[in-house]
Write a structure and sequence with these properties.
390 residues, mainly alpha, Hypothetical protein af1432
């Protein structure tokens, strides 16, 4: 095995878990974190949670689960190339979406609207809540008891949370309620593996949304030809393989585009390493800028792709119709359960009926956020459809 980079996170030096446990005889601490994520209920539910398209719209569109697996593959490849801890990067990637509610960003927007009088909703904060409280599967503690490095990466993978203009009091409720939140060094960046996982997410959804958008008929290959990089790659594939179907052209182009994004990130990160010369993961966290990133040139061209996808895919009327339905489903579930907590199933019912209004709203939010798309639709039918009994 190639020697790790000096700035990689070292599992031997992990700051440990909040609840002491005997070390595993067969796994490093970060391998253990990864396995706990994979075996969690929240991770399994991702198989029926929306990425862009609701599950019943087609078997071939990406779900949160398949997206998370794709992000993990990209993150692991990049971490290996940069000589980082592959297991930590993979674990971060697998866990990054487990706080998402049903119906993708529409679901998050609606839950946040419902929770505005009660400190709001944020899927990143909900991820922390899931791994530290809501997963109940171990006799010695609530949550998954992940390592410090996993928790700080999940919380800060998009950058520092507090600074000159932002304080802990400004953070989402789930962050503030975590008793050890200040221990996660919120004024610093996350470690290098978390930074890799965050940008692997960008690589995955940028390119796989192209695939899903074409498959759904929301736009065509020809319409992509005007985009920088993307158009060049699609043209090159068509020239090199003139007899391929559009479906096969898309597969090959997306494969090449992922490679372009990965290579750019690796090259740019190596340039930053050479300039900044961090000697440890702690120094990476303390830098005044991210160590891992895309070049300015690719970042500019990536913005053009994101703008195209936003207009042609995320705002497409078919997607908007599903967003509208999803918002109504979650709004009516939230209203019904908070008004009549006795309609909740056990064990949520007992906690909600005994709670004050503020606490009850958070319990209902936790229940709804954990639902799959299909279960939310079923629960809505059971609660709101007067023709159904039970």
């Amino acid at each position: 095995m190639e020697k790790r980079a000096v700035y990689a996170t070292r599992h031997e030096d992990s700051r440990g878990r909040y609840h002491d446990e005997a070390p595993s005889a067969t796994r490093t601490p970060f391998q253990r974190d990864r396995d706990r994520i994979i075996h969690s209920t929240a991770f399994r539910r991702l198989k029926q949670k929306t990425q862009v398209f609701v599950a019943h719209e087609g078997d071939h569109f990406r779900t949160r689960l398949t997206h998370s697996l794709e992000v993990a593959q990209i993150a692991r490849s990049i971490a290996r190339t940069l000589r980082l801890d592959e297991d930590l990067a993979e674990a971060m990637a697998l866990a990054h979406d487990i706080g998402h509610p049903p119906f993708g960003h529409a679901g998050e927007d609606q839950l946040d609207a419902c929770m505005q009088p009660y400190d709001g909703f944020d899927h990143n904060a909900q991820t922390l809540r899931v791994v530290t409280r809501l997963e109940v599967r171990y006799p010695g503690f609530d949550g998954l008891n992940l390592t410090w490095e996993m928790l700080e990466g999940l919380v800060k993978h998009n950058g520092p949370l507090i600074g000159a203009d932002t304080h802990i009091a400004d953070l989402p409720a789930a962050f503030r309620e975590f008793s050890r939140i200040e221990d996660l060094e919120l004024d610093q960046f996350a470690g290098p593996e978390a930074q890799v996982a965050a940008l692997s997410d960008d690589i995955a959804y940028n390119n796989h949304d192209i695939d899903d958008g074409i498959a759904a008929g929301l736009f065509t290959i020809q319409e992509l030809m005007e985009l920088p990089i993307v158009g060049d790659v699609f043209r090159g594939v068509k020239i090199e393989y003139p007899h391929l179907t559009d479906r096969m052209v898309t597969y090959e182009a997306v494969r090449q585009l992922i490679g372009i994004w990965i290579n750019d990130l690796v090259d740019e990160t190596r340039r930053r390493v050479k300039r900044l010369q961090p000697a440890s993961a702690a120094e990476v966290r303390a830098l005044g800028e991210p160590l891992v990133g895309f070049s300015d040139e690719l970042a500019d061209k990536q913005r053009a792709l994101r703008a195209f996808l936003f207009e042609r895919m995320y705002k497409h009327y078919k997607v908007n119709r599903m967003r509208s339905k999803a918002k109504r489903i979650l709004a009516e579930l939230f209203e019904g359960f908070t008004a009549e907590p006795q309609t909740l199933p056990a064990p949520w019912r007992q906690d909600a009926t005994q709670a004050d209004t503020f606490r009850r709203a958070r319990i209902v939010c936790d229940y709804i956020a954990g639902m799959t798309d299909g279960y939310a639709i079923e629960e809505h039918g059971r609660l709101c459809d007067l023709t159904r009994l039970g």
